TrEMBL record:
<dbReference type="InterPro" id="IPR011701">
    <property type="entry name" value="MFS"/>
</dbReference>
<feature type="transmembrane region" description="Helical">
    <location>
        <begin position="144"/>
        <end position="165"/>
    </location>
</feature>
<feature type="transmembrane region" description="Helical">
    <location>
        <begin position="274"/>
        <end position="291"/>
    </location>
</feature>
<dbReference type="InterPro" id="IPR020846">
    <property type="entry name" value="MFS_dom"/>
</dbReference>
<feature type="transmembrane region" description="Helical">
    <location>
        <begin position="81"/>
        <end position="98"/>
    </location>
</feature>
<feature type="transmembrane region" description="Helical">
    <location>
        <begin position="200"/>
        <end position="221"/>
    </location>
</feature>
<feature type="transmembrane region" description="Helical">
    <location>
        <begin position="52"/>
        <end position="74"/>
    </location>
</feature>
<dbReference type="Pfam" id="PF07690">
    <property type="entry name" value="MFS_1"/>
</dbReference>
<dbReference type="InterPro" id="IPR051788">
    <property type="entry name" value="MFS_Transporter"/>
</dbReference>
<keyword id="KW-1133">Transmembrane helix</keyword>
<feature type="transmembrane region" description="Helical">
    <location>
        <begin position="356"/>
        <end position="376"/>
    </location>
</feature>
<feature type="transmembrane region" description="Helical">
    <location>
        <begin position="21"/>
        <end position="40"/>
    </location>
</feature>
<dbReference type="GO" id="GO:0022857">
    <property type="term" value="F:transmembrane transporter activity"/>
</dbReference>
<keyword id="KW-0472">Membrane</keyword>
<feature type="transmembrane region" description="Helical">
    <location>
        <begin position="171"/>
        <end position="191"/>
    </location>
</feature>
<feature type="transmembrane region" description="Helical">
    <location>
        <begin position="241"/>
        <end position="262"/>
    </location>
</feature>
<feature type="domain" description="Major facilitator superfamily (MFS) profile">
    <location>
        <begin position="208"/>
        <end position="382"/>
    </location>
</feature>
Length: 382
């Protein structure tokens, strides 16, 4: 069941280009924040505890705005929502780069997380419509553009700052690139595809909740590797502190590679096998990072984890177009919101377990969770 009606323009190349560019912009915009963090800490005096609280504003913004995505799509259409999200993202980036007020920084981070959260949902909905129109599996490729955008964004702003540009000037240049790219493809964002009105919430079906739960595990793994792999590598594997970020770099690189190669893999294996094999490979990667004594093999383990996780969430989101228990745009909203909570819960869960047991035990439990994807995969039939 879907409120969307078929449209001939779905097959136009500009729609595919716009979908890829939209995901790239989302990843690019997200990555701008990381290089700005040290400069924000220098500009605004605050304790580590207060800064940690401010970082929660990003997740709170996403989790409070994302449930509204389905309603916004139904009432406004995909194109207006994407353009509104990009405009909000740009304003948020300006605030993060320029403000000297803790309160304004908190608001900017809240809008930053909220705009990216809604943008993620809306782009996934457009991707499903394009996939269904063309009869091809393209979600992995679309998500690969997000991963590529995040890598390019981080490298671009880091390079500009290294060359001596101020944080404000570098951010303005990044914003200009986002605006120009968005303007060039805005005609490919789908116009209104739903009748007026729409509801804000429909009780998720069992399949939608399962998709959300499996995505939750994958996103939990990503959050855990992002926030804890450096500490594990430097504390347990004797890697130099300056190289601690290589763990997440290996993970993110293999996610990107896996997604761009995902089309053939998904077509060959189907949803169930991609989820099952992906979970097992990711679990094996975490296992390797635990049992090895050498940091190089631990990096390989994180890379294998990224490769295993790469196509799980794209094929799960894609499967929502083949259910008829609830409208597709609301199904994507519900599943993505549940899944994204894993990014927030993951680091906290790892920290809690590490506090009461050890960081090694926390990663062991993470590996078991990833292996449990095999059980959930049995529900999917292509």
């Amino acid at each position: 069941m879907s409120v969307f009606t078929p449209s001939a323009d779905l097959a136009a190349p500009i729609v595919r280009h716009a979908t890829r560019t939209g995901f790239f912009i989302a990843g690019f915009g997200l990555a701008v924040w990381a290089p700005l963090v040290p400069y924000v800490r220098e500009r605004i005096e605050m304790s580590d505890a207060l800064f940690g609280m401010l970082l929660l504003c990003i997740g709170i913004g996403s989790l409070t705005w994302m449930p509204l995505s389905g309603l916004l799509i139904a009432r406004q259409g995909i194109r207006p929502v994407i353009l509104g999200c990009v405009a909000t993202l740009v304003l948020a980036l300006l605030g993060m780069a320029l403000t000297e007020s803790i309160w304004l920084l908190g608001i900017a981070l809240f809008c930053f997380g909220g705009s990216l959260g809604v943008l993620d949902v809306v782009l996934n909905v457009q991707s499903l419509l394009v996939e269904r129109e063309l009869g091809r599996r393209m979600m992995s490729n679309f998500h690969g553009m997000f991963s590529l955008g995040s890598i390019c964004g981080a490298l671009a702003l880091t390079g500009l700052l290294t060359l001596g540009l101020s944080p404000a000037s570098g951010t303005l240049l990044m914003i200009a690139l986002i605006v120009i790219a968005n303007f060039l493809v805005m005609g490919g964002y789908l116009a209104r595809k739903a009748p007026a009105g729409g509801v804000a919430f429909v009780r998720p079906s069992g399949l939608v909740l399962l998709v959300g739960a499996l995505c939750f595990v994958v996103y939990l793994a990503e959050g855990a590797v992002l926030d804890w792999s450096a500490l594990y590598l430097t504390g347990e594997k004797q890697l130099e502190t300056s190289s601690g970020g290589l763990g997440y770099a290996a993970f993110a690189l293999m996610v990107t590679v896996g997604r761009f190669a995902g089309g053939r893999v998904v077509n060959s294996l189907g949803t169930a096998r991609v989820v099952a094999f992906g979970g097992l490979l990711a679990a094996a990667g975490i296992g390797l990072s635990i049992i090895t004594d050498h940091w190089a093999l631990a990096l390989l383990g994180y890379g294998l984890c990224g490769l295993g996780c790469a196509n799980v969430s794209p094929v799960l989101i894609s499967s929502l177009s083949r259910q008829d228990a609830m409208p597709v745009h609301l199904a994507v909203t519900a599943a993505t919101t549940v899944g994204f909570a894993g990014v927030l819960v993951g680091p906290a869960m790892i920290g809690l377990i590490a506090h009461f047991s050890s960081l090694t035990m926390a990663f062991v439990l993470l590996a078991l969770l990833l292996a449990s994807l095999v059980i959930g995969s049995r529900r999917f039939v292509d």
